[in-house]
Amino acid sequence: MAYPKTPIIRRHGTIKFGTVESTPIVFGGNLYRFEYCRPAESEALQSRNIYNPNPWSSFHFIDMKTGVQTPSFAENHHLGCAYTDGGMMYAIGVDGSWGGDTLHIFRSADLQEWECASTLHLPGWKIFNTGVCKKDGIYTLLMEISAPAEEAGPKPFTFRFATSTDMIHWELTPRACVFQYDRYAGGPAIYAVDDGYYYVLYLEAYPMAHYANCIARSRDLIRWEYSPINPVMMYNEAEDKQIANPFLTVEEQRQIADALDINNSDMELCEFNGRTIIYYSWGNQRGTEFLAEASYEGTLKEFLQGWFPSEEMM
Fold first, then answer.
1. How many helices (H) does the chain have, and how many strands (E)?
2. pTM above the 0.90 mark?
3. How far, in Å, CA of 84 to CA of 90, rounded?
4. Can you name the residues that pair with 177 across neighbouring β-strands?
5. What are the respective helix, strand and coil percentages of the chain, to the nearest 5?
6. Judging by beta carbons within 10 Å of its beta carbon (0-12, 13-18, 19+), is residue 88 exposed, middle or buried?
7. Which end of the chain is more exposed for a tag (fewer CB within 10 A), N or C?
8. Would you put residue 209 in left (φ > 0), alpha (ψ -120 to 50) or beta?
9. Per-residue pLDDT tens over the stretch 148-166
10. What would the DSSP string read from start to end of 126-162?
């Protein structure tokens, strides 16, 4: 069988210290970066005498053209993701703490005023990162979980799913709809590009606590096909540590240069002006982490499909 040619990813370098798990997203024709601001980041801002209107964990967006930050919202929510459809922006977060059992789905038509549109409460579950895509008119919510054992499996983290027709009312898929039940899977993102597949970006664990972004796809969320040319992005100290943000302080740049790089994770994508925008995290997967930017010179569909044999090759 002929194998696909590896899509070429151009890494631009580190853009932020501390803030990770960010989502590039297009809204109203403009490119934004959705950010999850952790409490530790708020403390760091205060220590540098930088005004922070919200000392708790929260979400916000950065306009990538102007650099302007939108008002913070979703106080005391964690591990957020963003998704847009039908002129609305949605943000999903875990209420209260990492590994909580309740997700809140916020929505806004202008990124200024937000409402909590939906709640998904799963007693006994421990939920972390999430992602959303739309396929055949149905929204699919991916949840990274570590409990309960009958859902998460013997080697959590594991991905489970729920579906909705309106982003409001959610129903869990059958337990057979699960990703990587038998071994660790972290840092998820999920996409659909009108070719019949769900594409999942995920974190694969390698020996000696090293991690890299990989990709798999499925038509039914049950049977999964792994890319024969995984990983999608392996940590690369020389490229990850490039400085792509001239406003990083001298001390931040020193910490970047000295940091251990054994992890590329939490890869998220969007298409903007025919190019695939990529954000990912790098560091040691134990608290020292950085946000970096990359790109692929092609559409999101071309990028995702490029990791797999074409239908003609099958």
1. 5, 20
2. yes
3. 6
4. none
5. 10, 45, 45
6. middle
7. N
8. left
9. 999 999 988 999 999 999 9
10. EEEEEEEEEETTEEEEEEEEEESHHHH-SS--EEEEE
